[in-house]
Amino acid sequence: MYFIAARSAISGENQVSSVEVKADQENESSAPSVSQAEKWSHEAIVARSKIRPVRREKLNRAANSGENPGFDFLQECWNDDPALQIVIKKLVAKFPQWRVAVVHGALVKCNE
Q1: Residue 21 has what pLDDT?
Q2: What's the CA gap between 5 and 16, in Å, rounded?
Q3: Which residues, at least 6 apart from 14, have a Cβ–Cβ distance to it below 8 Å?
Q4: Tell me, what's the pLDDT at 34?
Q5: How far apart are CA 67 and CA 65, in angstroms?
Q6: Cβ(38)–Cβ(44) under 8 Å?
């Protein structure tokens, strides 16, 4: 269990409040877990490069609309494609109302 500080941007105030963050230990991703060797095989890299544009488009729609694509989708992208981690980091920083954070290099759901 982690605790992070969240700054409130309501009325331009810089109030700091504590938010409890629980790391989700279960793998809720629809992608099966694979070994590091399998993850970096030529076939896996090619497969990721083929699905990356679809995932990036969904993330771009979320960035433009502010609509949360869902923690499961974000987690799947985070675990499967390191190139999308940068995009996801920017999204969770831009939309704190999604209650998702990056803590110690892991994507986690925030609980009150």
Answers
A1: 42
A2: 6
A3: 7, 8
A4: 66
A5: 5
A6: yes
Q: At what angle do helices 82-94 and 71-80 cross, to 10 degrees?
A: 140
Q: Tell me the C-alpha distance between 96 and 94, whole Å.
A: 6
Chain-centroid distance, C-alpha 5? 18
Q: Which domain range does residue 75 map to?
A: 2-111
Q: How many separate domains does the chain show?
A: 1
Which tokens belong to 1?
Answer: 């269990």
Instruction: For residue 107, give the DSSP letter.
Output: E
Among 21, 80, 23, residue whose Cα is nearest residue 47: 80
The distance of Cα 42 from the centroid of its chain, to the nearest Å, equals 25
What is the rounded distance in angstroms from the CA atom of residue 108 to the CA atom of residue 106? Answer: 6
pLDDT in tens, 14-52: 333 334 444 443 433 445 566 778 888 899 889 888 999
Which percentage of the chain shows pLDDT scores above 90? 53
